[in-house]
Amino acid sequence: MNPSDSLHRFYSGFVDKYDLFASWEERKRREGRFFRQILQSNGVESVIDCFCGTGFHVAMLSEMGYHVDGIDISPHMIRKAKENLKDMGLDDRVRVGDVKELVAGEKYDCALSMGNSLPHEFGDENVLKALEGMYGALKYGGIVIIHMENFDRLYEDKERFIPSVYRRTGDGTEAFIFAIDYYEDRVVFNILSLIERGGKPGFEVDVVEYNPINVESLKRLLKEAGFSGLALYEDFMMRPLGRDGTYDLIVVARKRQVSDKRKQLYFLEDAKG
Ligand SMILES: C[S@@+](CC[C@H](N)C(=O)[O-])C[C@H]1O[C@@H](n2cnc3c(N)ncnc32)[C@H](O)[C@@H]1O
């Protein structure tokens, strides 16, 4: 099966569990302060979420006052995002789209790849195309924020089972456990979910493959795409990467300002018509 078929198959099965697995309230508590700080200190007004999933960042950042658009390659995730965003009047801000095919509009101050999205791309060529898509969407001076697993750390420990969520609410119980298979060129997350409603347990397994992009490759590809000024963190508290050795990796990088020399060149070219 090619990677894009397996991606569509995974999200068609997982879409209705996704927001249980990653509850919006918990995510707001975890990520809110980070975004306020980074976006304010970089003078951001507009954001494109290039892997918007079920719409969490579109909603949270719109609530904070930013203009946010979202694209996602999965029609299932976009259907869910529209449902989630309807009451906020934001459902027309999201559409189906592939980040690798984004038209370079240079419209946004910030581009996002959150929630381990970039590692859905396999091969340096595709990762680079995705980064170039985000680069093209940004104005000069704009920033990209990438949040993903720290695969260097995961491969150091090669933990087979990672309990991810256990939650009891008025509706029932939700538990998610990751069983991970580590290979040289891919890592397979088998997600076991146990969702109990009205005393009836439902047990399912969903399987998703990722490209275990290591930190050095990501840094190299970001630079190749044109980004500079990389800052690397290990959590949303903005602790520098490597301090406590978490399994999270967050990178913030900038699309270089056009130099005055290049601006002049553009000006001369325009003048020539
Ligand atoms: C793990 S989800 C994360 C969603 C969201 N960013 C979040 O944090 O909740 C990854 C998403 O990336 C999307 N995706 C994968 N490849 C993509 C591509 N080439 N272009 C746009 N979206 C893509 C998937 O469909 C999926 O919705």
From TrEMBL:
An example molecular function term from Gene Ontology annotations: methyltransferase activity
The protein's name in its UniProt record: Methylase involved in ubiquinone/menaquinone biosynthesis
Keywords assigned: Methyltransferase, Transferase, Ubiquinone
Pfam families in alphabetical order: Methyltransf_25
Superkingdom of source: Archaea
Methyltransferase domain mapped to chain residues: 47-142
GO biological process: methylation
